[in-house]
Amino acid sequence: MGDDGRVTDDPTEHDAHPDTVAEPSASATADSPGKDAPVPVRRLSALLALAAVIFGLDLLTKILAVHYIDPGDPISVVGDTVTLTLVRNPGAAFSMATGMTWLLTLVAVAVVVGVVRIGRTLRSGWWALGLGLVLGGALGNLVDRIFRSPGPLQGHVVDFVSVGWWPVFNVADSAIVCGAILLVALTVFGIEPDGSRKTDSAGSRKEAHQ
Fold first, then answer.
1. Which of 10, 173, 194, 200 is catalytic?
2. What value does the mean pLDDT take over residues 105-113?
3. Do the beta carbons of residue 140 and residue 171 sit within 8 Å?
4. Can you tell me the distance from the alpha carbon of 76 to that of 206, in angstroms, rounded to the nearest whole number?
5. Looking at 19, 159, 194, 200, which residue is catalytic?
6. Of 88, 93, 117, 197, which one has the fewest beta carbons inside 10 Å?
């Protein structure tokens, strides 16, 4: 207040720069996740959901095949070209590596663990699709190797679909092959699990140096 009784503005009561906007603190920024933060969780959920569907379908079809198909009497679907033929397979997909059942079981376990770990940071829907197919198929055949005869880690996988000259296979085999083909294609086209492209990142780095 001045000597004449009028109220005067005290310059100390105002900011030196009234137009300056206070920046959020580092801790506030760290505690406020971006809007894209939930994406990896959604991708992992989709991956696991697809894997569960593939696993359930594979398990159901194997139970039906064992119950209804006589190993010595294939069921014709399309003449002699497509038949349902029950086969106990000690090897990998499409009857490969028949003498290494225990090793294939350990490989399947490693695949399952690896897919789940990758899925935790996954942002690409296409990668989620491919990995979901591989995971579901790996789990389907892994259950056979653990729980079916002749014993744990030595169990024979149930195959029942025969198409022409192609080796007899099952739903899990089909899912693994389709998923693997998709993952190879994504890699060839430079699509990363986080949704980015190799060409885009290389171009960004090139522009940054210019």
1. 173
2. 82
3. yes
4. 60
5. 159
6. 117
71 vs 14, higher pLDDT: 71
**8-state DSSP, 197:** B
> How many residues in the chain?
210
Give the distance from CA 30 to its chain's centroid: 29
Closest to 44 in 3D by CA, of 128, 112, 110, 113: 128
Query: What's the pLDDT at 3?
Result: 54
Q: Pick from 125, 130, 118: which is nearest to 178 by CA?
A: 130
Report whether 145 contacts 35 (CB < 8 A).
no
Instruction: Report phi then psi at 162, rounded to 5.
Output: -120, 125
| Amino acid at residue number 95 | S
- What residue segments make up the domains of the chain, in order of their start? 83-91+100-191
Task: Using alpha carbons, select from 192, 12, 53, 73 the residue that is nearest to residue 135.
Answer: 53
* 36 part of the active site: no
Asked whether the whole model's pTM tops 0.90, one would answer no
- Clarify whether 159 is annotated catalytic: yes
Does the pLDDT value for residue 84 go beyond 50? Answer: yes
